């Protein structure tokens, strides 16, 4: 595997460590310390995320034109500054200040997001991209696992604002190290050489307009159908990010420290299981692997609802659910990270990753709004998870249908 992908994976590990010191506990802090209700939390997350949605696509278009490396570093610096502002706002207990900091930082980091995926795709051939994305994912989750464990301790020991501040310092450090160690991608080098020698650049850097890139994507029905399938899947699986910890802590009574351990288990299963999972499905179809991963999510969440309804060993049910859904996550992440690059025409890897990111992020946002609304309307665990898992049905239908439309080479791991 290319050295630069390894460096990027290590950088993502450190970055996710900094973010995990506070982000998994954010909804709990908003409820317990700022007094926000479930639905208010959902509306807040939704509104902030909605403002960021267009920046996913903008970032994808930008990374095909200005390059990968610089955009990634700018995004890390922007995230660090915004996180520091967030820490200050929470120290003042200023909800408006926190909203402004989170929104501004989210816009910057969202613009940079597609550059990370495009950078990996530049260094890995179509048949080896799953392994490249696996390395980055393992790094991210290793950092997340360590960060969420430490964050659970820091939130109790020194308070939430200080934990956020430490997270900001870590991300600042990552930006500096990445700037020093990360090389330009082949895409960036080819276009830089073209500029120096007066040679043609990639289509997106040599004259293809934003509107032309968008028209290419709009006419690509198989790619749009896959993106829509993942958007519906996100409506179900993204309940892990906000609704899951709220349900586990407030409805099942699992304490903070065990919640932190359970979230860390998620990261450990990825760290020690993602590489094996990827190798075990090499040669299989991305769409079929996505179907299996999504079904495992549904089994885990509905099983948690059954345990909550019957009052059966809630702590045990929590850990079992984390393990099962993480296996599903390991499977689902392979097509979700790789297919956009595989389906992209020449010069459009960034724009396709940005468009997929925008569409699936919309699913994530609506999942928060729907999830918090359901939590505020009913306390029946089976009803809660039955409603929240319903979007998995159209996702599975779309995945099965799109499999017949995608070129076989692009759909093969």
List keywords for this structure.
413 residues; 0% strand; globular; 80% helix; mainly alpha
Written overview of the protein:
- The protein is an all-alpha fold and 413 residues long.
- 80% of the residues lie in helices and 0% in strands.
- It is built from 17 helices and no strands.
- Helix 3 packs parallel to helix 5, helix 6 packs antiparallel against helix 12 and helix 10 (221-237) packs parallel to helix 15 (349-377).
- The protein is globular, with a radius of gyration of 21 Å.
Helices and strands in order:
Layout: H1 3-20, H2 26-32, H3 38-66, H4 69-91, H5 95-123, H6 129-157, H7 160-181, H8 186-197, H9 210-218, H10 221-237, H11 243-251, H12 256-280, H13 286-310, H14 314-343, H15 349-377, H16 381-388, H17 392-402
Helix pairs in contact: 1-6, 1-7, 3-5, 3-15, 4-5, 4-7, 5-15, 6-7, 6-12, 6-14, 10-14, 10-15, 10-17, 12-14, 13-14, 13-16, 13-17, 14-15
Mean pLDDT: 86
Q: Give the proportion of residues in helices.
A: over 70%
Write the H/E string, N to C. HHHHHHHHHHHHHHHHH
- The termini sit apart by 16 Å
Number of helices: 17
What percent strand? under 5%
For the report, how would you describe the main beta sheet?
none
What form results from the Cα inertia axes? globular
Radius of gyration: 21 Å
DSSP summary, beta strand count: 0
> Spans with pLDDT under 50 lasting ≥5 residues?
195-201
Structural class: mainly alpha
């Amino acid at each position: 595997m290319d050295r630069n992908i390894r460096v990027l994976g290590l950088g993502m590990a450190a970055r996710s460590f900094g973010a995990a010191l506070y982000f998994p506990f954010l909804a709990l802090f908003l409820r317990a310390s700022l007094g926000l209700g479930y639905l208010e939390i959902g509306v807040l997350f939704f509104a902030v995320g909605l403002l960021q949605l267009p920046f996913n696509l903008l970032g994808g278009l930008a990374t095909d034109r200005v390059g990968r490396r610089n955009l990634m570093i700018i995004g890390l610096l922007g995230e660090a500054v915004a996180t520091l502002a967030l820490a200050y706002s929470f120290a003042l207990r200023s909800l408006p200040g926190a909203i402004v900091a989170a929104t501004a930082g989210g816009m910057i980091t969202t613009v940079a997001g597609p550059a990370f995926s495009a950078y990996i795709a530049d260094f890995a051939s179509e048949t080896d991209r799953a392994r490249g994305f696996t390395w980055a994912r393992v790094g991210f989750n290793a950092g997340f696992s360590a960060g969420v464990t430490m964050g659970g301790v820091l939130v109790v020991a020194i308070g939430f604002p200080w934990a956020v501040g430490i997270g900001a310092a870590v991300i600042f450090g990552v930006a500096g190290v990445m700037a020093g160690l990360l090389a330009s991608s082949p895409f960036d080098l080819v276009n830089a050489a073209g500029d120096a020698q007066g040679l043609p650049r990639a289509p997106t850097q040599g004259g293809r307009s934003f509107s032309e890139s968008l028209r290419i994507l709009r006419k690509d029905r198989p790619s749009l159908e896959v993106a829509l399938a993942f958007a519906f899947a996100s409506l179900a699986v993204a309940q892990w990010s906000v609704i899951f910890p709220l349900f586990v802590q407030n409805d099942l009574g699992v304490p903070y420290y065990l919640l932190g351990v359970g979230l860390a288990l998620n990261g450990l299963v990825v760290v020690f299981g993602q590489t094996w999972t990827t190798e075990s499905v090499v040669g299989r179809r991305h769409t079929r692997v996505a179907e299996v991963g999504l079904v495992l999510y549904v089994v885990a969440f509905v099983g948690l609802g059954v345990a909550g309804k019957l009052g059966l060993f809630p702590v045990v049910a929590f850990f079992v659910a984390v393990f099962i859904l993480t296996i599903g996550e390991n499977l689902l992440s392979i097509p979700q990270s790789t297919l956009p690059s595989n389906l992209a025409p020449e010069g459009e890897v960034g724009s396709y990753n940005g468009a997929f990111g925008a569409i699936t992020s919309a699913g994530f946002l609506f999942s928060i709004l729907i999830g918090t609304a359901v939590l505020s309307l009913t306390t029946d665990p089976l009803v809660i998870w039955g409603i929240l898992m319903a979007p998995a049905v159209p996702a599975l239908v779309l995945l099965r249908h799109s499999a017949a439309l995608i070129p076989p080479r692009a759909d093969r791991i």
